[in-house]
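Quick illustration for those who missed Monday's session on complexes.
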Amino acid sequence: MKHLFSLLFLFTLSVLSAQSVQSPSGKITVNFKLGSNGQPVYAVNYKNKAVVLESALGIKLKEKPALDANFEILDSKTATFNESWKPVLGEQASIVNHYNELTIGLVSKESKVKMNIIFRVFDEGVAFRYDFPRQAELNYFIISDESTQFNLTENNKVFWLPGDFDSNEYEYNETKLSEIDNSKINMNNGIGVKSIPGRYMVQTPLMMKSPSGLYLNIFEAAVVNYPVMHLKADVTNFKLKAELVPNAIGDKAYLQAPCVSPWRTIMISDDARDIVGSRMILNLNDPSKIEDTSWIKPMKYVGIWWEMHVGKSTWDYAGSQNATNFGTKLESSGRHGATTENTKRYIDFAAKNGFDGVLVEGWNVGWEDWSGNWKEEVFDFTTPYPDFDLAAISAYAKAKNVKMIMHHETSGSVGNYERHLDRALDLMKKYDYPAAKTGYVGKIIPRGEFHDGQTMVNHFNFVARRFADYKLMLNSHESSRPTGYSRTYPNYVAAEAARGTEFNAWSIGNPPMHETILPFTRLLGGPMDYTPGIFEIKMSYYDKNKTEQVHTTLAKQLALYVTMYSPIQMAADLLENYEKYPDAFQFIKDVAVDWDDTKILQAEPGDYLTITRKAKGKQSWFLGAITDENARKSEIKLDFLTKGQKYKAVIYEDAKDADWQKNPIAYTIRTVVVTNKSKINLNLAAGGGTAISFEPIK
Ligand code: NOJ
Ligand code: CA
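Prediction with calcium ion bound:
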């Protein structure tokens, strides 16, 4: 009898202390248990094979006992969720959000603090977060560390960025997990900010491929009032640990219960297309908090931008980076890009070619002094240079039915931007600018804060909300990378937050594989303003001494409009360069930026990507195929097209002798009639691509 009793007791205990939850398809299982010392641990299986071994969970508090051991399980509950929602702008008209959820209620035996761990298991991955309910035992608290681990099973191939707390504008390193080592790579990203706390720190999203061909991605969703999560790699044991970005005094996060942490996510599939096509990160964010979204619109735009990057004109008026205390006394250098006359030229071009907007950088006072000086007050975001007539430009744009896009470079001086923000946004309203691009080049002021810390995450999110109050759209550059906040604030239409096209103009640039990786990493969190469309590819065109170039063929630049999703998409090159290649430019004029449907046809991180999308509210489809430094041939089926419908397909492809280094501009254009039974051969040059438009024939 006594024996039986203890057996029964053991059984209940184990039922209580070990729990599991599966994905709707049953392919992914998460197991949770309390280990020795009451330590919460989880493990993940994919198709019955371990992919994450038992790994620690929990956080450490600055002023209270840690919440990563000494727990008891209070209760647990499961739930299933299956719903679809409609993004305001997006890659598809409707997104399915289907998962099984397991919530474990824990209480610390030591401090009596209650903490829940919530798991959500989707068909393409796992998410979990810490939830701190309202309670007498925990009110205001400081997180000093996060104990979350991801203990992997194999020496995966990894696409990693050095764990810089200030910049994500790096090239990807493609190595084995065991070879992650910041001391072995060139960490000069050319923009002078570098805060890399150690050899084995890497950024998320971290894309991996196991030796047996499993694709894994570790990232996070809904980073709100919390710092960004980087990962510290134990390169011998294939273990990764969450590293939260600290603030100026070394704390990680200040929170007040009730509150939640961001979601930690692990995507898993044996088909790489599932990762690129996943909407898990968006699904883990709150629905839109903006009720009337009618003012949020997709935009294709041109701008006074690349001409500064290639050195044809300057941001600053006087042509002197050292002219402090700018006054109207300063003479124009004659090279200033943002003049009224030049802006009108861009407005004319936009109007003529059906573009929605014109971005102008360098329109406002401060550029003499902006970068590298780490100064508190550089820009006021409201004072134009004497040769930029805001009222005249705004009236001219209005008459031509073109919208102006504002530019707010903060040069990292964030307190200054917040102080001026309302006036800056009033100015935008006054002159009818519906959107702004922001920038955070350089080190942050308040000094000691990092781009990826809680303070800055809160700043970026605050700016998005403030823009929403004014019914304005936001496109941030040099922000921390998005984690799906654009679902909650759909006016946050895009961000750069990775190494963009600009690097090709003045640094070693972005290698051809770069754009085949970004959709597996940066783009999972939201649209990217990558600024594609460069037709004059070699910088020697501007200055024969220059050796820099965009690592691409011209046809690949067209394909990027499909593979790099953004509802605000730039045609980045100089207007005169588009005028030289009107037949290729036609694709940029035609391509949509907002979509009803998206299909990932071919995908391999670091190698190639083929995506096709259906234009929002139309019957036309667009396809983009890109490759890395290797030429590739393949055949694609057009079975995504509507059955029985004939389409005119215009195929923009690399010429036979095209090559990103030797002959990047060579392209051919051919037109064929196709149906959903047709096939098309893709012939991608080294560093090349193909872009196709499909228009139904009436
Ligand atoms: C970096 C941004 O990414 C780029 O687009 C911009 O032109 C410069 N900063 C100046 O603001
Ligand atoms: Ca940038």
